[in-house]
Design brief:
It contains nine helices and ten strands. It is an alpha/beta fold. The N and C termini lie far apart (44 Å).
């Protein structure tokens, strides 16, 4: 038998909303990605990006690896890198929660913090300069097909299987867009009628894990034709919903999951019938040092 931690990645549960969804003709299912061993949906992409690069011979145990992240991808990469004894540096904005930084370092990764004011874009620029000038290898989750293909191979098939092919709508926050791209590609192959709904923050909002990218930083893996509708949510609404998920549904998650749930509930209110699957992308324990649950 295979007893490695890798086999715990994926096959996350779907749980039905019992309180927040009040439309009796629509079933809202939350896919609990915090159940992955690294605590987020990014375990899927990190595992696929590292193993695919190793299989292609692009990296070895002697390669200096680097990646820019707002948090969850860094934790996932650090976990997988530890399993494969790889040397990894993570670059992230200095306003990242303490739990994120400590978790990456616990896995053995080196963490470099860039100024808050330059955001994740500045962290990406810093990592790219290291690749250009110092010979690092960057996974580049924003432009790496191995990111979205992880969800084509796992997340999409799981949702189709666990809803017995009855899913009508899929809702996902959009950051790197890997989750929504891969899941959309698979679900649309099964049925072109499945509607794919992306979630972005409103212009004035800052929601960790969800971005409305400037054109020059738009993820290269993003294909707008694979998303049927984009809903915008405010930071205030996402914060309130993260708390409500914990208090009313027993689902402890971060702000981006709150934002996705806001969008999913708006969708459910308008539907006459359907089965909506919404991604709960991580666990709330990595936000405890922030003011999210104050």
């Amino acid at each position: 038998m295979n007893f490695s931690i890798e086999r715990l990645i994926g096959n996350t549960p779907l749980v039905e909303s019992k309180v927040l969804n009040t439309n009796p003709n629509v079933k809202l299912l939350f896919k609990l990605e915090g159940q992955n061993p690294g605590g987020s949906v990014k375990d899927r992409a990190a595992y696929n990006m590292i193993t695919a690069a190793l299989e292609r011979g692009e990296i070895t145990k002697d390669t200096k690896l680097i990646e820019a992240t707002s948090g969850n991808t860094g934790i996932a990469l650090a976990m997988i890198a530890a399993m494969y004894k790889l040397d990894l540096e993570i670059v992230m904005p200095e306003n990242a929660t303490k739990e994120r930084v400590q978790t990456m370092r616990a896995y053995g990764a080196t963490v470099i913090l860039t100024p808050t004011e330059v955001g994740i874009e500045g962290a990406r620029d810093f990592a790219e300069a290291k690749v250009k000038n110092e010979g690092y290898f960057m996974f580049n989750q924003f432009g790496n097909p191995d990111n979205w293909e992880a969800h084509y191979k796992t997340t999409g098939p799981e949702i189709w299987r666990d809803t017995e092919g009855k899913v009508t709508h899929f809702v996902s926050s959009m950051g790197t867009t890997g989750t929504i791209m891969g899941t959309s590609t698979y679900l649309k192959e099964q049925s072109s009628n499945v509607q794919i709904v992306g979630v972005q923050p409103t212009d004035e909002s800052s929601i960790p894990g969800i971005r409305k990218w400037p054109q020059e930083y738009l993820p290269k893996i993003f294909d707008a034709t694979k998303v049927d509708q984009i809903l915008e949510v405010s930071e205030a609404d996402a914060r309130v919903m993260a708390k409500r998920l914990a208090e009313e549904e027993g689902i402890f998650s971060g702000m981006s999951s709150g934002g996705a749930t806001v969008a999913a509930l708006r969708l459910c209110e308008k539907l006459k019938e359907g089965i909506v699957v919404s991604i709960i992308c991580d666990r709330g324990d990595r936000y405890l040092s922030s003011d999210l649950f104050d």
